[in-house]
Structure formats: C-alpha cells, structure tokens
Amino acid sequence: MRYSLKQLAVFDAVASLESVSLAADKLALTQSATSMALAQLEKMLGRPLFERQGRRMVLTHWGMWLRPKAKQLLFDAQQIELGFYDQHIISGELSLAASQTAAEHLVPELISHIDSSFPELRIRFEVDNSEGVLDGVRNYQFDLGIIEGRCDDSRVEQQIWCHDHLVIVASAHHPFANKESVSLAQLEQARWVLREHGAGTREIFDSALLGLIEDLDVWREYEQVPVLRQLVADSQYLSCLPYLDVVKFVERGDLVVLKVPDLSIERPLSFIWRNDRTENPLRDCIKREAIRLAKRNRRKM
C-alpha cells in the first residue's frame, strides 16, 4: 500500500479535533502540509474521508470505517518503535474519561498506582457525566471510559469495576433528619435538588423511583456535586447522591443519610470501550490494575 503512517496520523488528528488547523498544531506541521497529506490519502483510497459542516471536518461513512483501523496501525507502530528502544511493553499514552464520582474518589488512586508501577504509561484524563463519557468513547475521543450504571449501546463493551450505592441526604436540621425511617409518600412531599439529566446518578435514581413515586418536586438541577451538597446542608432540600460523595460530610454532621426502607439503590461503576477496537495492552493494563485495587480495598474494609 502507498499510504504512510504520517497520512494516517493526520487523518486521525483531524478526526479527533474536527479541524485541519488544530490537527496541524497538534502534529507540529504546517496547515498546508496537513491538508496535502489528507488530500493524498483520500486520493489514494479513492474515497472522501471528511465532509465540511461549517468550520467542522466531519467523518464520512468511509472515514468512520477507516478510523479504528488507522488508530490500531498507529498504536502498533508506536509499540514497534518503543520496543526497539528497549522500553517496557506497557508504554505509550491512553485517553481516559470518568464520571464525577469515580473521578474524585477512585481514579486518583488508580493513576498514582499506574504511575508507580508502569512509569512509561501516560494517562490523559478528562471528567464528564456518564453520557458525555459514553459519547466520547463512541466518537473515539477516549480509549477507555468509566461510567455509572448500564450501557446498552451495541458498539460499546462494558466491564464492571466496582459497586457504589446512592443515598438520600438531608441537612441535620431538616424535619426528616431525626426520623427512624422515611416513607415514599414523605419523599414525594419534599423539595429536591438533583444532578442534571444525562448524569449516571440521575438516571439510576429516576429508574429506582419508577412506579414508586409519580411526581417528584425537583427545584434545581446542577452538574456539580459540591453545589448540591451545600444546598442540602444549608436549606430544606433533599438530594440523592453517591455515598462516596457524602460520607465525610455525614461523619462531621453536616448531612444526614435518611433511612428509606422501601428504597435501596446500588449501582455499578464500569469501564467502557468501543468493541471495534482491537487488542490494546494499555487499556487492558489499566482495567486489570483497577480491579486489583478494588479487591485490595474491599479486603481492608
């Protein structure tokens, strides 16, 4: 074949950034050289790989077909190069994205462990809600994602990492705070502040209430868990948040976990990746070490 790794790298960068100029900056090339490499690749393949939509370069059907294959070739080329320099097989960069709870409470320990055990593995990390992480994995923006709850997309593989549970919290001065138990009817009468639609926490909470509470009085929706925690601590709102996000505030008396016998909400935190991607030792290493850490932490509890 006459195409080059440089042309594939240009194609992948333009696909990631949806811009020739941004791809040129990323690859340290001139814009004209980047445009020429892309044009040569399209000419050799005999198919258009992108179409312009305003200022965006959007993949065509052929471009979407080519992208996972190009990324695998680029990854293999990187491993060959590193191998000749006698570097450890677990070398290179991987893009990881996680939803907020995992990002705040679990991923830092994982990255610290990876940095210590696999110093040649570099993790490029971003935080988004579960829907955003899933979109990024689907669009090849992230090699690996961590989400809350289930993923039913046939293009995506899912593997459970660990489990967390959601709790209903109130301030210490809320009328429900000193009750031995709270009923579903009482929850329906309360005012709520919740995560936004698209967040895994919100999706799981809504699913748990389905058929139990018809109309919840939701006053505010926010992306930021600290905002929700403070609103609950300062006001008469209730919220549903991951236990990992509130345990320290419960221990110091700022928040109270309500006992709701008719409601128990457990959720998995899972790894996701595109199922059209071939073997990736970096991705497999991170999943393996994460599961090992989770088992070790469970034994400590």
From TrEMBL:
Pfam families: HTH_1, LysR_substrate. Gene3D superfamilies: Periplasmic binding protein-like II, Winged helix-like DNA-binding domain superfamily/Winged helix DNA-binding domain. Residues 1-60 form the HTH lysR-type domain. The keyword Hydrolase does not apply. The keyword DNA-binding applies. SUPFAM superfamilies: Periplasmic binding protein-like II, Winged helix' DNA-binding domain. InterPro entries: LysR_HTH_N, LysR_subst-bd, WH-like_DNA-bd_sf, WH_DNA-bd_sf. Keywords: DNA-binding, Transcription, Transcription regulation. It comes from the Bacteria. Belongs to the LysR transcriptional regulatory family. This is LysR family transcriptional regulator.
